[in-house]
Design brief:
single chain; alpha/beta; GMP Synthetase, Chain A, domain 3; Rossmann fold; 2 domains; four-stranded mixed beta sheet; 11 helices; binds adenosine-5'-triphosphate; ATP binding; iron; iron-sulfur; YlxH/NBP35; metal-binding
Length: 368
């Protein structure tokens, strides 16, 4: 029997932390990915000092997961957000991956730069963020990119979700490698979208263990050493939360705005608020909110249900005086299509239409 996200989370609930909480109840598990017998996730500690004290917790989590049937490999990265109490510098430690950056030229220290710069040939950069992991930010990014391309826009997608780069899989590019002449990288293309992902520069299953400055350098390279060509819009799929990548992107590139993805539950909305706060502090305009996993329509009987509630994100947008950009239904096709490397927005049907409407709204508003 294959391990699933649910069985993994069940095991992780058994990993106790000091003070009586566990890894799941303390909301420290990020970017959980269970695929082909490999379990990967990030433990996000509140600060570097706590991160250093989590070796026993990591070991216990690894022991429990390895005992699950169908699990061949477990990769855990422990991280603490930049600037958190006790963190002299952004900290990332890893159990696997041996600490070395990828052998390719990606992942170097940043070159000095006065302030945010435009990316040559790219008219707009849109950051797609979320406060919480697993709300469908990567799914939304790939499908929105495809929907925009279908409406005639020249679209690029940069997968900067270093903890769990999923765009190569979602866009059917697994196994393909971009070519590099040592100076510039030739991006890949899928469904009319120009694609680059840090995941494409790493060996399969390799955990990213770069520290803050290294990350900043890698992101700078992704922006400036990739042959993006002429683009109307470059979508950047950010990792969940409010960490180094968000900070680096907004410091290095002239980001036109951020779109925040959330599910309707209160707990996701609380985290979404944090993400909005961060973009405000970074002086990056928040262009609006999108509700994912909104209404569930039963494929058999057409009955509509609101598994995670409905309308929470629209209400939040109104409360924060931000535009509500649209909603994407919860639909099994979205997941199957993403897992199968053929985004649902590339086809026809109600979900593809929902992404089409979102794309049209952004184009009409001059955002894409
Ligand atoms: N509207 C939807 N309907 C059904 N399944 C969805 C929907 N949106 C996303 N999913 C599924 O939910 C899971 C998480 O989505 P995704 O990886 O896009 O989230 P994320 O926010 O990018 O997560 P991470 O924290 O890993 O970056 C995936 O299996 C995806 O296929």
């Amino acid at each position: 029997m294959a391990a699933t996200r649910e069985t993994v989370l069940f095991e992780l609930q058994k990993v106790a932390l000091a003070g009586g909480a566990n890894l799941v109840s303390a909301d420290m598990v990020r970017a959980l990915n269970v695929e082909n017998g490999v379990v990967r996730f990030v433990i996000e500690a509140p600060d570097a000092e706590s991160a250093r004290g989590l070796a026993a917790v990591e070991a216990e989590a690894e022991r429990l997961l390895r005992a699950l049937p169908g699990v061949d490999k477990v990769q855990i990265v422990t991280t603490a957000p930049a600037g958190a109490r006790g963190a002299a510098a952004p900290q990332v430690t890893a159990r696997s991956g041996a600490g070395a950056p990828p052998s390719l030229t990606i992942g170097r220290h940043p070159t000095p730069q006065a302030g945010p710069l435009p990316v040559s040939g790219v008219a707009r950069i849109l950051a797609i963020g979320s406060g919480k992991g697993g709300v469908g930010k990567s799914t939304l990014t790939s499908n929105l990119a495809v929907a925009l391309a279908r409406q005639g826009r020249r679209v690029g997608l940069l997968d900067a979700d270093i903890y769990g780069p999923s765009q190569p899989r979602m866009l059917g590019l697994t196994g393909q490698r971009p070519k590099s002449d040592g100076q510039m990288i030739e991006p890949l293309h899928a469904y009319g979208v120009t694609v680059m992902s840090l995941g494409l520069m790493m060996k399969e299953g390799e955990a990213v263990v770069w520290r803050g400055p290294m990350l900043m350098g890698a992101l700078q390279q992704m922006l400036n050493q990739v042959k993006w060509g002429e683009l109307d819009v470059l979508l950047v799929d950010l990792p969940p939360g409010t960490g180094d990548v968000q900070l680096s992107l907004c410091q290095k590139a002239q980001v036109s705005g951020a779109i925040i993805v959330s599910t309707p539950q209160d707990v996701a909305l609380i985290d979404a608020r944090r993400a909005i706060d961060m973009f405000n502090k970074l002086k990056t305009p928040v262009l609006g909110l999108v509700e994912n996993m909104s209404t569930y329509i039963c494929p058999n009987c057409g009955h509509e249900a609101h598994l995670f509630g409905h309308g929470g994100v629209a209400a939040e947008a109104a409360a924060l005086d931000l535009p509500f950009l649209g909603e994407i239904p919860l639909n099994i096709e979205v997941r199957l299509a993403g897992d199968g490397g053929a985004p649902v927005a590339a086809g026809d049907g109600p979900v593809a239409d929902a992404f089409g409407r979102l794309a049209a709204r952004l184009i009409a508003g001059g955002m894409a």
